[in-house]
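Thanks for the sequence, V.! I ran Helix-turn-helix right away. Repeating your input here for the record:
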Amino acid sequence: MNNSAIGKSWDEVRAELFTPQELKEMESRVKLMHAIADARKKKGLSQRELEKISGVSQPVIARMEKGDINAKIDTIMKIIIALGGELSVTF
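Predicted structure:
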């Protein structure tokens, strides 16, 4: 079995596995999900309470916060608005 990843740094392995575009997308997704989880916690809301005010189910919120799903923009916006935030995009 050839494991070419042995002895390489995580950055080197990531560069071999993903394109620069994929890495940027993943990093942006992680930042967004962390921001959502942080905002929920700062407001003192449980995932179940956020479910009630956003209309997004608690299991979906949990998977989003863990990075297990690629949520649709509509779902993300429901949560952001429920948390009193807004989405800003910069280029």
